[in-house]
Structure formats: C-alpha cells, structure tokens
Amino acid sequence: MSAPQFPSYQRLFAEFKRRNVFRVAAVYGATAFVVIEAADLIFPRIPLPEWTIALVVWLALLGFPVALVLAWAYERTPEGMKQTYPAATAELDAIAAQPARRRWPAGVGALVGILLLGLGAWWTLTRSGPGAQTYESIAVLPFTNMSGDEENTWFSDGLAEELINALAGVEDLKVAGRTSSFSLRDQNLDLRTIGDTLDVQAVLEGSVRRSEDRVRITAQLIDAESGFHLWSDEFDRDITDIFQVQEELAQSIVRALLPRLGAGADELYRGGTSDLGAYDLYLSCRQKWYTRRIELLWEAIDECEEAVARDPAFALAWSALADAIDALAFRSARAQSLVPRAKMAAQRAVLLDPDLAEGWVSWGVLAFEADRDWATGELALKRAIELKPSNAYARAMLGDMLRNQGRVKEAIEQQRLALALDPLSPVIHGVLGISLTAARQFDEGRARFEHTLASGGDQAAALAFLFLSGPLYGLTGEEIADHGVTLAGLMGAEDPQQAAAIGHAFASNGTNPDLMSEARAAADLLVADSVFTVRQIAVLYTRLGDEETALQWIERAAVAEDLSLALVATDPSLDPLRDDPRMQRLMDELGLPNGYDPAADTYEPEE
Hints:
This protein is of the alpha/beta class. The chain has helices at 8-18, 21-42, 51-73, 89-96, 100-126, 153-167, 178-183, 191-198, 242-257, 276-291, 294-310, 315-331, 339-352, 357-370, 374-387, 392-404, 408-421, 426-438, 442-454, 459-468, 477-490, 498-508, 513-528, 534-543, 547-560, 581-590, and strands at residues 74-77, 80-83, 137-140, 144-145, 174-175, 202-211, 214-223, 229-238. Helix content is 60%, strand content 8%.
C-alpha cells in the first residue's frame, strides 16, 4: 500500500508547525496583548504623553511579522540558535498524517494569538475608554501658584480663566464656569467629587512657576470618574510669550479632549495683548469684578482704565471695563455718570474683535439695562452664546433681559441652563432667584439667595432680597431683621440696628402702628445712609405702606436712568403700586410691563 499524498498547503502548515511558527505566533500575540493593556493602564498614571501608548501598539504590530520570519529561519538547539534545515517530503507528510488532536492545537493557538494582538491594538487605538475617550465636558481648576509670591496668584488664576474662555468657544464642549471651578480651590476634594459637583467628565489642573522673565506651566488632564491621566505637558517660555503659551495649551487640551474637532480648534485665544502689564491689570480687574463688592469695583474700573491706556487695542480689557462700570452703576448711584463710558467700552471691544464673546455680552447687557433696547440686547447676547456656548454669564444675562420684558418662563429656562454650566456661581443663583421670585416660586427663590449668602457671593444683593421680600419667602420677623441688620452693616450704615425695627414691621404686615412708625423713622435714616438702591427704596416704602414716597422714588429713578429700574417691572413686592395711574403711565413710557401676568406668558420651556 502506497503512502498517502498530501496537498501542498497541508505540507506548508506542517512546515509551520515543524519550525514553531504557530507556537511563536501564539506566544507573541498573547504576550503583546498583555504588554499593550499594561501600557494603556500604567502609562497614563505615570503620566507619559498619550502618544507613547500608540507607540507600544505599533511596535507590537510591526514586531509580529519579524518574529514569524525569525521563527521560520532559525531554531533553538542545545548549542544555541541555528538556521533551520529544510525538511524532507516524508518528514512533512509524517507531521500532516498525525491525528487531528495533535495537529490542531498549534494552529488554534496561533489563531488565538493573532486575534489577541489584533483585538488589543484595535481596542487601544479606537476604543472609548480612559485615555482615548471622546470627552464632552471639562472643568478647569485654578492653577497652583508655585512662584512663592502671592501677587502671582493673579497670573496663575488668569491663565486658568483664559483657558476656560478659550475652551468655552469649542462647539459641543461643555465647560464648567469659572466661578464654580474656582470655588473648589483648596478644598482638597477628590476628582470624582469634583466631577459630580460640576457635572463634568474631565478635569484640568496645573501649576505656574513664574520667575522674572520666565514662566513654567505644567498641566494635566484627568478622567474625573477613573482618575486616569489622559494628557500632560509642560511649557517653559519667556514671559513675553504667555499668550502664545495660552493658545498652545488650549489647543493641546482640545486635541486631547475632542480629537474629532480637527481644524475646529485652530484659533482659540482672542482679544489679547502683547503688553504684560496691561494683561496683569486686566486679570486683577476681572477678579475684583467677580466679587461684586462696591469698593473693589471702583478699583477694578481704575485698573481696566490703566490697562486700555497701556494697550488701546486690548479688547478683553475694554469688555472688562464695561462690565465693571455696569456692575457698580447697578449698585451705586454715584457711578451712574460712568454709564456712557461703559457703553463706549463695550462697543470698542466688539469693534476691535467681532468674534470676542465677552464684548458682545458687555454690549448686550448695557443695551437692555441702560437703554431698554431689547432687540439689540437679545441679538448681542445670543451672538455671545453662539460664539461661546459655554458662556454661562451670557445666558444668565439673557435671562435677566427676558424677565424684565415679562418673559419670565423663558428667563428661568435660560438661567437654569446657565446654572448647569456654572452650578456654584453666586451671581447666577442670585439672578435665577430674582426670576423665580417674579414667577411667584418663592421657596426656590429664597433658596437661591440663601445659596448666594452661604457661598460668599454678592452679599448685598442677596441680603436685600431676603430682607425686603422676606414676607414673600415666609421668613420670620427675627430672620428678616437679622438680614436687614447685616445688610445695613455691610453698606456702612451709621446704626445698622435700625434695620431690625423694619424687619419686625414687615413681619407684622402693618398690624402694629407703633412698630410701623418706628420702622418708618428707621427707613428714613437708612435711606439717608445710602444703604439701598433706588428700586430697593421703592420696595421699602411700599412695604411700609407709603406708596406715595415709593412712587416718587421710582419716578426719580426714571429721570436718573437708574440701571436697576427695570427690576421694578416684575417685582411682586411692588404689586400694591400697579393700579396707580402714575405707575401705569411710567411703565408704559419706559417700555416695561407693569407686573408679571403668568397667563400672558405663553412660552413653553423645552423639555
């Protein structure tokens, strides 16, 4: 009987087995899979640049055919590695003739090794897990000042703020607002808590070491859920190149976050200056503006004026100047004369850089607050949102404008969107509280102002609402009195305790004539001490039953073009004045609604 004849492909497989090619394929594939996964797990934690993981993958892939060629050409013997000798046909036929249970395991092992290598490479290069995931939200924490000089805190905070501003212009990327991110400073919270608090998937943190003419910036991007390092880099530059570093850093982060953006992340930083002194002044101005404290707002205006004097083309500084004047004029009648300067500054910012969202916000706010130009205000604010979808302040101010028009439901929707972007912002909690109060949602309105107080935000505004609208919020006489005394003390009243009598009078709802008389005398003293804005004075006298004096103050505010006047339109505390013909005429002349009518507000918020 003649020996069986095997096809050439079976002899080839037999040769693969004889030369241990199958075994090498199995061992190499399994080992490479383990190495790739280990690199993907460990490298981000060291951290190493993201490209090092891809390098390991490609080296493993390129090494596979090399390993197979070496397995084919050489064999290991007791004397060492030697070239494999050619096999005779009979030897290959003998291997091919072996039972399947002896032939198949080698081939199956090789196939499994190849599949493991391919799966590991594909998963690591294309998967959506830590290190390669497409992230859609980020919080930029304040960078740590490592310079040993407290004055450089402005600089390190400013860098983080500019990164927030730059990243906020990226479409489909949610960026936690500056106020919320910065409020977590020095709280030693773990990343998962930060991610949950700010509702973001990734966190950027870093440090700045500034020394004379050099600055070293380190930054690392971290998955908020897992704690994996996604990206890290270090920038060592001349201090005069800080603006180039900002743009370079922002672009690197965007590429790490959203690889699909491609060319969409080319130009992020706008409105800058090459004058480092002007830049430092701008940063200081913005920091003081965030506090909304009257004495610091005056300083902020001076600093922004100096910044634009140093560099008249510094668009961001012009916008900051407009915002500082607006915030101060809203709180202090002494600053009302500066409003024309603020309008000019806002327009200058937009003209210098039409793609600067901050400039459009400044212009829009002044358009509706100072001129009650609703059309311009809405267009400008919506343009800012279009340029920077994550600009929470733009949405908050759009809500303010809508509320002043009587579009309260729409206002609340916009301000809730703003709060989602900047969940810890005292200012946004405050303006949402005003809108909720206008909508008669008193419990939540009170909660928003109490949050502002607890977070150390705009204390005067929050205290004024809790004091003057205390009866609407269900506060006791003691609670209202305490808020009034704190407010009077904060505003520099000669005798803050006078406000206690007013608080108790409010709680009595006018049932105690002696208490009302004492409260009226106290109110006159506090008004003389400039504790309240014009609108607040109108609310104060309305609650004390002196509607005539309240109307006179509103008329005075209209003549003075007081920026806070528009709040009169929907404030429920002023409802006792609504039926007076003078109030109706005045609101009509100002183009403001005379109170809020829920039935007429037909807007349906989006689900």
